[in-house]
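A.,

Following up on our hallway conversation. Structure tokens first:
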């Protein structure tokens, strides 16, 4: 997730704070284990310190569905460290855990490429359109903090190798996608439950088929 940190603001009356909600969607420029952990620890501590000083009333942090299930992934361990900083800050908060974005499937495939072959796990994901994530995060930011976690996901569970194969086909990319149950995803092996949501997740409306059709129309 290549993202940034933003703040929802209101026009202040005299003597009132300008920002009421901070929406933290920051991401590390490096996914190397030590670098990504240091990034989320440092940025997290700096951000909550500023929020405490400013009297922020709601910290919204974007995280990842299943992050706590995959300790072999340095990136996901770093996201859990970020979540813990938020929880312990004393600032009212909502952690929004999202499944993977449709828009990042091609990049995941590129990262697994070996010449003309791409090996990806056939474990199922439940990916979501970034526009649906943005809408949901906006709704959360405008609502009261839950001091807990909410989950977001797309409407369909689809194996990762199939997702990549269909995206590459739409893009006219002839490389072969081969299912490999041992293929790692950000350092961890997956099963069908690893990155899929629990019951009660908020479901985005955009199907993978409709997202693919829109992508095809851009070519």
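Then the amino acids I'd put at each of the 219 positions:
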């Amino acid at each position: 997730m290549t993202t940034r940190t933003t703040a929802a603001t209101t026009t202040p009356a005299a003597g009132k704070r300008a920002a009421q909600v901070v929406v933290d969607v920051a991401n590390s420029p490096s996914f190397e284990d030590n670098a990504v952990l240091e990034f989320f620890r440092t940025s997290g501590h700096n951000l909550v310190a500023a929020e405490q000083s400013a009297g922020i009333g709601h910290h919204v942090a974007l995280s990842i569905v299943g992050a706590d299930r995959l300790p072999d992934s340095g990136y996901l361990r770093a996201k859990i460290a970020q979540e813990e900083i938020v929880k312990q800050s004393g600032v009212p908060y909502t952690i929004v855990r999202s499944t993977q974005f449709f828009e990042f499937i091609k990049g995941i495939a590129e990262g697994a490429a070996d010449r003309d072959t791409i090996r990806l796990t056939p474990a199922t994901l439940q990916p979501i359109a970034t526009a649906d994530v943005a809408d949901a995060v906006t709704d959360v930011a405008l609502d009261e903090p839950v001091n807990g976690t909410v989950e977001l996901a797309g409407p369909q569970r689809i194996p990762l190798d199939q997702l990549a194969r269909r995206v590459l086909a739409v893009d006219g990319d002839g490389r072969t996608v081969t299912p490999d149950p041992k293929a790692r995803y950000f350092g961890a092996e997956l099963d069908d439950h690893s990155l899929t949501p629990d019951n009660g997740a908020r479901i985005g409306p955009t199907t993978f088929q409709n997202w693919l059709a829109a992508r095809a129309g851009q070519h």
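The CA atoms of residues 64 and 85 lie 15 Å apart. Curious whether your intuition agrees with the design.

B.
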